[in-house]
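Dear Dr. L.,

I hope this message finds you well. Following up on our conversation about the binding site, I have prepared a predicted three-dimensional model of the protein together with adenosine-5'-diphosphate. For your records, I am including the exact sequence and ligand specification that went into the calculation, followed by the structure tokens. Please feel free to forward this to your student if that is useful.
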Amino acid sequence: MKILVINCGSSSLKYQIFDMDDESVLVQGLVERIGIEGSRLTQKHGDDKYVVEEEIPNHDHAVKMVFDAIQDKEHGVIESIDEIQAIGHRVLHGGDKLSESTIIDQKVKDVIREFIKFGPLHNPANLMGIEACEKAAPGKKNIAVFDTAFHQTMPPEIYMYGIPYKFYEKYRLRKYGFHGTSHRYLTLRTAEIMEKKPEDLNIITVHLGNGSSLSGVKEGKCLVTSMGLTPLEGLIMGTRSGDLDPSAMTFLMNEEGYTADEMNELLNKESGVLGISGISSDFRDLEEAAKKGNERAQLALDMFNYRCKRFLGSYMITLGHVDCITFAGGLGENSPETRATLLENLEEYGIKIDPEKNNCRGKEQIISTDDSRITVMVVPTNEELMIARDTMELI
Ligand code: ADP
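The resulting structure of the complex is given below.
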């Protein structure tokens, strides 16, 4: 069975085809700069790289190009679109209406549309991708896999905000959480590695990338997560501020005259380790600058690490008992330094890292010592595979 997985952004579209017999990736590609000058499609499988440069005015055109590329006589991997059994779509926000992956019908599209209010950049793009696929392959089943779904098991005392209740009733204003597909994959994979059922484990999943979040997963279900109404809450990220006193925002709006949209832009795109260091949102650049003595780069890293530790500690207490801590994401998978800094001197709390085992990048590895009470590991996340599995199950 072959499944096409699509992750559609406002100006980009990533895709992969999985052969679900062995969960291998047959082909993957990226359409860039949709609606912007210089647009192109790049597709790879094995050593073959196929690039098509042409004007791509909209998502309909982008999806048509993908369908052509995967069926291309020379560079394609299928002869006909009939070989694709279904299409799985990554969707940012399903609000509190959709707590599981779902076959897309008009009602599901209405929910995605309703929650554009909390995902104004992603949900419209996700919808465009879905509707483009419906047009390009009529009758083919489309499945939505939501970033918010895994976190729908959080209890109200964790997802409610301390503001008047009427705003929850009126707008469904609350914590939702994101990266859910990644946190779910990490939960399932951690359990497999531990040779246990997810229900028999308490896990803290730590996804550190450009966007970062932690989840406290109790007996296989998400109890708490660090992102909120939008992905802005929680950790300090590449360009996002994470938690701050809301008065800082109103102060800046008053003093600098920022509008709500400008404030949103500042907190999402100009803050985080980029805003603090003034150098870069990429942790590799910051580590290099810090080594050369750049104090603000070091401060940004220290702040990032402190905030992570704060959440780790909080989730250990919230969960009560922790069996595993699992790292993923570009930074979590590839930076032994970050992992070592976050977990040093925690023997008292049952965490002992083996520096040799920790010296690994981008591969599955247990990095705690054999006598560490909590097992700490690195698991490269695989959201696309999770989407493909859900899609297969649903059809
Ligand atoms: P996204 O959240 O956009 O999916 P990724 O999970 O791909 O991001 O993570 C990207 C980030 O991971 C980069 O910005 C970079 O800071 C960090 N990163 C990747 N490789 C390394 C590395 N070897 N050392 C330190 N940081 C790294």
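In brief: DSSP finds 15 helices and 14 strands in the chain.

With kind regards,
A. P.
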